[in-house]
Structure formats: C-alpha cells, structure tokens
Write a structure and sequence with these properties.
The complex is a heterodimer of chains A (about 280) and B (about 290). Chain A has about 280 residues and is an alpha/beta fold. Chain A contains 11 helices and 10 strands. The C terminus of chain A is likely disordered. In chain B, about 75% of the residues lie in helices and about 0% in strands. Chain B has a two-stranded antiparallel sheet. In chain B, helix 2 runs antiparallel to helix 3 and helix 3 packs across helix 8. Classes of the chains: A alpha/beta (about 280), B mainly alpha (about 290). At the A-B interface, helix 2 and helix 3 of A face helix 6 and helix 7 of B.
C-alpha cells in the first residue's frame, strides 16, 4: 500500500475548481515531483494535503488512515509536514526557536533540532539570530528543518527553488538523500522542471488541476513533458512551443494558486492551455 | 520635594495603568485585536469579588485567589465561543463584538448591582503607607499594585520566551497559517492568550477596586487609560506597555501638581502627541 494515497481529489477556490479529479500516490522512500505551469494547481494541491485548504471531493489516505477531514495542526501529528512556498519562517523568532516550533506536535523519530543542525552545520553558530535577517537560502534551510523536526512520514516541499540562486538550490537539494534515508518520503512541487526531473523518482505534470502526465523521469521524453506542461495538444503546431520551454525556470515572485487561466507563464501557454483544456 | 512626591505617585499610578494595559497589549500582540470590553471585565472582576465577600465566608484575599483563575477560564471560553468567531469574519468584527460585550456587561451589572458605587474593603491596608520623608509617603496598596504589574509582565515575558506554548503564541503572532503548519491549533493558542489577558485584567480590576470606589459604568475609563498606555508604549510590546503606563501616570501626576483639573487632560494630550509624532510608540514591539 502507498504511504500517501490521494483519490479523486477536488479542491476549490470559491466556485472555481483548482484541482480536479486528481489521483496520486507516494510510495515509502520515494520522491514524487509535481510539475506544471503557473496556476496549474500545484500549490493548491499541496496546501490541501497539508490541511490549510479543504478538500471539496475525494479522499486523502496517509498510511491507510483517512486524513481528508483532519485540520492542519493535527496532520502534523499524523505525519504530514509542509515547507510552505516562500518559506514563511517566524521572523521575530530565532533560528533555533523556529526549529523548535516544529517540535510542538512532533512525532517521535530521528529528527530533532540537533540532527537538523547536523544537516545544516551553519545553523549551530547562528542559532540565536532572528530568522528574519537570514538570506533566502538560509531561510529555506530553516524552513525545511522546521518541517523535519516533526518527523513526518511525508514531507511536502512547495517551490523550494523559488527566488534562489541555482547554486543555493543545489546545496539545498543535496540534503534530500539524507532525508529519504531517515524514512521520510517527499512530495515536491517545482516550477524548475529540470530540477524536479533530476531529483524525483516519479513525476506528475498538472495542467488546469488535472494530471496530464505521469511516469519516471527516465521514461519521459522531453517533448512529452513540454506538451503536458503547456497543454499543447496533438493539434498544436510543432515548433512554436520550443521557444517557451525555458520560461518555466525563470518564474519570478509568486506562484499564484488560483486557477485563473490568465495566470499561466506566458500568453501562448495560456491560450493553448485553454484551447485544449475543453477537449480533454 | 512636592515634585519628588509627584514623581513617586506618578510611578505608582503608572503601575496600575500598566497592570490594566498588559492584557490589552498581549491580546493585540498575539491576535491584532483590541478588546473594547477590557475595562468592563475589570469592573466585573471587582463586582465578582464584592459578591464573594458579601455572600460567602471568603475574605478579600481568598476572593482574589478565586476570581483571578476564574477569569482566566472565562477568557478562554469568551475567546473560543465569541471572539474567535468574529475574527473569522474580518478585522472590524472583533471590535464590534467586544464593544457589544462591553455594553451588555455594563447593563447587566447595572441591573444586578444598581448604579451605586462600591469598594472592596482591604481593611487596614487601604490607609497604611510607608513614610519615606515628611513629604513623600507611599501607600502599601499602590506599592503592591506596582509590584504585581512588574511581576505579571516579567511572568508573561518568561512564558512567551521560555515555554513551548509561549513560543507558539509568538509564532502565531508572526504568521498564523505557518503556525498551523507546524502543528499549532490557533483557536487554542488564541484562547490561552485571552485567558492570560483576562487573569491580568481581573487582577487589575481587584487592585483598582481596593484603592478606589467603582460602579458598573467605571469600565470605559479604565479601558481608555489602558489603551493609552499600550499606544504610548508601542502596540504589542509588554515592556513598552509598562513604560507607557509610567509615562501616563507621571504625566497625570505632574499635571495634577500644577492644577488638579488638568491631570486627566494632560494624559490624553501626551497620548495624542505620541499618536501624531511617534505612532510606533516608545518601545515598539518586535513581535509580542
């Protein structure tokens, strides 16, 4: 049985479905990468799994237990922790205090403040510093540590690379194997598609709230990923979408979780995504 | 020497204001809401002690021991039952709801106790004072109030900085949703903050009731002084609130030395000046 099993999930923002009829499963020790353009519903999916957005329809099973209706604060104790988009550290708390907040309803396990500081040794010397003055990469590390100390079964990572220099992103993803070794599975959402393909065991691509592609990175042809990412159906002209490929990696600022079609990365992607959406 | 006396009396008065204000300050710091019924809950506490002393064999000190924890529990329930629901609607709703609570409390007290002024009889303590010099003497009751204010503020600070729950209070103040994501139940966290605030305002109401007479309509004035202390000190900062209470007390005392008629007005003017020229207050908060 899968560790995290999501069946027929629908999440709405008001009347608008942002995630539709979505199935996914995370196996123990596995990294599942969810990719998709801006507004595809990635963050909405993660926020629903973390419990801050209600599921409109469908079930979420964690290790066989139905957690669909569990509020966010009880999901931490059940074994789901999220590193939210934009880090969301507590700026007036010190580095160490930020990590300690993660222990408030922690499960027992290998991770505690000391072992997280072993993972990111720089934290030891700067434990008393306010989290607000850290650099983006350092904040991301603390945010991951804060989620880890609750010893989750499944760690949800929302846009870890957002707004960070590639070398910093690299350094953060370097710790992923050690997190997996400790027995935690990872579900990550990435706008940086190549990054997701590099670290994930399996990748799912979302388009307008639906899974349009699913497979191991090795089995997926770049063309397929491209088409799924931008929603370019078979009717789309070959050639015109190649230009758009790199844009997914240079997304600035926020990834809106609203399913507004106009939110997509480029005007072209929006138009083509909309035109094929109805035929799916 | 009279000015020295005015300074001493001002600081003692400031202690009472700070004790009134620290609950307001805590609630604002954690939840960003202003409890407009704050002063009325203080008066309610004084009436509760008054009733306990009249109808039960409990003396004043035992009444304090009963009323303060009772108000902590009341605060928890008021938050979970009433204020939390209004917070979900928007930032203005808690203001209206607590204003409504204030009106209801005043009228229920008026109905139950009439408009007569009462006092909590603290026996010999009311008139006892420590004579420092011929001109300067310090009332024990004021000294106890100041001591309690310091004790309460230090205790809350220690709770916030040292305990796990206190840490979650600060975390929820920084980012309520992130606090939920690390396992904090914000409804509980907010109710704990309100519980602490109610315990302190009960204590303030009881000390107030011992040092001067009170009636069902005494609440709003208490709220204004408390609110002024919070704003002068810096919203949401407990040490700032202590400083704000002192500034307000000293101002009123010095102005009273010049002409008693200007005492209250001078306090309001300082409050206005702070709002106009230093709106972040004297000691602005980092968080709580």
């Amino acid at each position: 049985m899968s560790l995290l099993d999501v069946r027929g999930l629908e999440v709405r923002h008001g009347q608008l479905p942002a995630v539709r009829d979505l199935d996914l499963s995370v196996e123990p020790g596995q990294v599942l990468g969810v990719i998709g353009a801006n507004g595809a519903g990635k963050s909405t999916l993660l926020r629903c799994l973390a419990g801050v957005l209600p599921a409109y329809r469908g079930t979420v099973l964690l290790d066989g237990r139905d957690v669909t209706r569990l509020p966010a604060h009880r999901r931490v104790a059940a074994g789901i922790s999220m590193v939210p988009e934009g880090r969301r550290l507590f700026p007036s708390l010190s580095v160490e205090e930020n990590l300690l907040t993660g222990t408030y309803r922690a499960r027992s396990g290998p991770w505690d403040v000391a072992s997280v500081m072993g993972l990111f040794p720089w934290m030891r010397d700067r434990r008393k510093q306010d989290a607000g003055v850290l650099s983006g990469g350092e904040q991301q590390a603390v945010a991951i540590g804060r989620a880890l100390v609750s010893n989750p079964l499944v760690l949800l990572l929302d846009e870890v690379s957002l707004g960070l220099a590639p070398v910093v992103v690299q350094r953060i993803y370097e710790v992923l194997p050690r997190i997996l070794d400790s027995g935690t599975s990872v579900l990550l959402v990435e706008q940086d598609v190549s990054q997701a393909l590099r670290v994930a065991d399996r990748v799912q691509c979302l388009l307008e709230g639906r899974v349009v592609l699913d497979g191991a990175p090795a089995d997926l042809a770049p063309e397929d990923v491209e088409q799924a990412y931008f929603g370019l159906g078979s009717r789309a002209e070959k050639g015109d979408h190649h230009v758009r490929w790199p844009h997914g990696r240079h997304e600035p600022a926020h990834e809106s979780s609203r399913p507004v079609p106009g939110d997509a990365t480029t005007p072209d992607a929006t138009a083509s995504g909309r035109s094929t959406g109805g035929t799916r | 020497m009279t000015w020295v006396n005015a300074a001493v009396q001002g600081i003692l008065l400031g202690g009472l204001y700070a004790l009134f204000a620290c609950g307001l300050s805590l609630m604002f710091g954690v939840m960003r809401i202003v409890n407009l019924a704050h002063g009325d809950f203080a008066v309610l506490a004084a009436f509760a002690a008054f009733s306990l002393m009249s109808w039960t064999p409990l003396n004043l000190w035992w009444s304090v021991v009963v009323v303060v924890p009772l108000f902590a529990g009341l605060g928890y329930l008021v938050q979970r039952g009433i204020i939390a629901k209004s917070m979900a609607i928007g930032p203005l709703a808690p203001l209206l709801v607590t204003f409504g609570l204030a009106t209801v409390l005043q009228n229920v007290l008026l109905q139950g106790y009439s408009a007569d002024t009462r006092a909590l009889d603290a026996g010999w303590l009311v008139s006892a004072s420590l004579k420092v010099t011929d001109q300067v003497s310090v009332a024990y009751l004021s000294l106890i109030t100041l001591g309690l204010a310091l004790l309460v503020i230090v205790a809350i600070q220690l709770f916030l900085s040292r305990s796990g729950l206190g840490r979650m209070l600060r975390a929820a103040s920084d980012d309520p949703e992130a606090a939920r994501l690390v396992g904090g139940d914000n409804r509980h966290i907010y109710a704990v903050a309100t519980g602490i605030a109610f315990a302190t305002v009960a204590l303030a109401g009881l000390m107030f009731g011992m040092s001067s007479s009170f009636s069902p309509s005494a609440g709003p004035t208490r709220l204004i002084f408390g609110f002024e202390a919070v704003v002068i000190g810096g919203l949401g900062s407990l040490w700032g609130t202590l400083a704000g209470g002192m500034v307000l007390g000293l101002t009123q005392s010095f102005a009273g030395q010049v002409d008693p008629a200007y005492s209250i007005l001078a306090g309001h003017l300082v409050f206005l000046a702070i709002l106009a020229f230093r709106p972040q207050g004297l000691l602005p908060a980092r968080s709580v």
